[in-house]
């Protein structure tokens, strides 16, 4: 085949993102490339042929041994050259294989199968192996960094934010625990669904017409072939494997993609100049802006979100590929080829997320400063809860009015409460009842109002540090 510069390629995955993810994409090549597609189809054809040898030739060891070397002897260029004649990819592969296998086995190449038996079975194997051998290991590294951030920052105070405004205090470890939990559960699901992908050797319409002429147990024949490939048969097939097995895997990967995008979006906002709570690594030779030398843009986080924007909408195509007329049409033949692009895009986003997390600088001093920047108004909820616990039914409205006074007069909530003797007495009574400091000290240390944030951060870190144990259960 002719050599081609990667800069002549049309897809950014094949030049820009390949160069940024060379090792990762080289690993994916073994599963998602056109060469891999042909090699996996050969694996299925050889497994089928070996079962014919077992069935019709008494499992002759010499023939079985000879078939083991066939896969390595076939090049994609041979198959493509043959396809120029046949105008049919699988028949081209069959013709090439017949020239490679022992002569007495040649009549049995592809016997009893239809093209999609080979294509769908190979597709399931490729997707399973790409996910379990490349994508999940990458996600596990991301999860490991999230767990580390949970544990290392379990007690680092941070103001919580809802609707872009300060809420009540949490810790940064607790904020990261959200993503460790969400991504951890998704990894477990992805692993399970990858292991449940199915194959088929059931013939032209899935009813075993052809193999029933060759054996009295066509379903057993199919199961034997698929077991050698590490697959189970589709529960019911047309000419195609039921599309929902692969669909569910791709949908869960899209869920994980959204989690990574959400994390990236949060980290990007925390790097805003006016927030400045975390910072991506910025090397001395790096440039943030072509005109503003002071810029330290959070471009890696933005890159993850941008990849999500490009690839997540493809989920619509995955749904559309559920539909095939009667036992089969070809309306998924082109669209299914782009699953490889989707997985590569997702893997690139996961790798970039890992890069961000591994070098993330946490500015604990700025986090503390931001908690105190709103004064003690972040404890308005606490004041309302304490007041209500003391028996005041209008506690929420009373505290709300006090916060309005604070904003108008520029005073602290502690001062506003102290000025109202009835409210002050009830709040002090509740503080004493639960063993908390006096009001003056309580409202001066906003960061201590953090509930179970530290405990939850550590619990999540402990749980997902052992995520490998969950994955082993699904093997």
UniProtKB/TrEMBL annotation:
It comes from the Bacteria. Catalyzes two reactions in de novo purine nucleotide biosynthesis. Catalyzes the breakdown of 5-aminoimidazole- (N-succinylocarboxamide) ribotide (SAICAR or 2-[5-amino-1-(5-phospho-beta-D-ribosyl)imidazole-4-carboxamido]succinate) to 5-aminoimidazole-4-carboxamide ribotide (AICAR or 5-amino-1-(5-phospho-beta-D-ribosyl)imidazole-4-carboxamide) and fumarate, and of adenylosuccinate (ADS or N(6)-(1,2-dicarboxyethyl)-AMP) to adenosine monophosphate (AMP) and fumarate. Residues 375-461 form the Adenylosuccinate lyase C-terminal domain. CDD domains: Adenylsuccinate_lyase_like (cd01595). GO terms for cellular component: cytosol. InterPro entries: AdenyloSucc_lyase_C (IPR019468), Fumarase/histidase_N (IPR024083), Fumarate_lyase_CS (IPR020557), Fumarate_lyase_fam (IPR000362), Fumarate_lyase_N (IPR022761), L-Aspartase-like (IPR008948), PurB_C (IPR013539). This is Adenylosuccinate lyase. It holds the Pfam family ASL_C. The keyword Cytoplasm does not apply. The keyword Repeat does not apply. One of its GO terms (biological process) is IMP biosynthetic process. One of its GO terms (molecular function) is N6-(1,2-dicarboxyethyl)AMP AMP-lyase (fumarate-forming) activity. Keywords: Lyase, Purine biosynthesis.
């Amino acid at each position: 085949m002719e050599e081609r510069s990667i800069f002549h390629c049309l897809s950014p995955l094949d030049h820009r993102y390949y160069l940024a993810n060379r090792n990762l994409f080289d690993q994916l090549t073994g599963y998602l490339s056109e060469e891999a597609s042909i090699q996996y189809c050969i694996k299925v054809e050889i497994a089928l042929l070996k079962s014919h040898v077992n069935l019709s030739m008494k499992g002759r060891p010499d023939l079985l041994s000879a078939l083991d070397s066939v896969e390595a002897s076939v090049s994609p260029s041979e198959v493509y050259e043959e396809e120029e004649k046949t105008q049919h990819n699988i028949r081209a592969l069959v013709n090439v294989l017949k020239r490679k296998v022992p002569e007495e086995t040649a009549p049995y190449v592809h016997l009893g199968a239809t093209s999609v038996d080979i294509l769908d079975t190979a597709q399931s194997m490729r997707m399973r192996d790409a996910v379990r051998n490349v994508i999940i290991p990458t996600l596990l590294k991301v999860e490991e960094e999230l767990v580390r951030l949970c544990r290392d920052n379990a007690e680092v105070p941070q103001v919580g934010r809802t609707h872009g405004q300060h809420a009540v205090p949490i810790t940064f470890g607790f904020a990261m625990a959200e993503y460790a939990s969400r991504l951890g559960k998704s990894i477990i699901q992805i692993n399970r669904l990858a292991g449940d992908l199915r194959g088929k050797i059931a013939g032209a319409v899935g009813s075993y017409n052809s193999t029933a002429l060759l054996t009295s147990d066509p379903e057993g024949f199919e199961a034997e072939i698929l077991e050698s490939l590490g697959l189970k048969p589709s529960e019911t097939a047309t000419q195609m494997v039921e599309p929902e097995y692969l669909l569910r895997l791709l949908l869960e990967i899209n869920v994980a993609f959204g989690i990574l995008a959400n994390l990236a979006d949060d980290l990007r906002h925390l790097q805003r100049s006016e927030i400045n709570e975390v910072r991506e690594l910025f090397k001395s030779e790096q440039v943030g802006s072509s005109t503003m030398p002071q810029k330290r843009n959070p471009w890696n986080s933005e890159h993850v979100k941008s990849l999500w924007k490009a690839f997540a909408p493809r989920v619509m195509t995955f749904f559309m590929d559920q539909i095939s007329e009667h036992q089969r049409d070809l309306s998924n033949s082109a669209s299914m080829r782009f699953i490889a692009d989707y997985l590569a895009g997702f893997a690139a986003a996961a790798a970039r997320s890992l890069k961000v997390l591994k070098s993330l600088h946490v500015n604990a001093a700025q986090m503390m400063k931001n908690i105190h920047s709103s004064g003690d108004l972040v404890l308005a909820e606490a004041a309302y809860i304490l007041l209500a616990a003391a028996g005041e039914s209008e506690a929420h409205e009373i505290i709300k009015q006090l916060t309005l006074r604070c904003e108008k007069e520029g005073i602290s909530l502690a001062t506003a409460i102290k000025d109202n003797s009835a409210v002050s007495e009830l709040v002090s009574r509740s503080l004493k009842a639960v063993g908390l400091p006096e009001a003056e000290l309580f409202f001066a240390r906003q960061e201590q109002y953090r509930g179970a944030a530290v405990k939850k951060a550590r619990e999540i870190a402990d749980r997902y540090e052992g995520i490998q144990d969950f994955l082993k259960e699904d093997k």
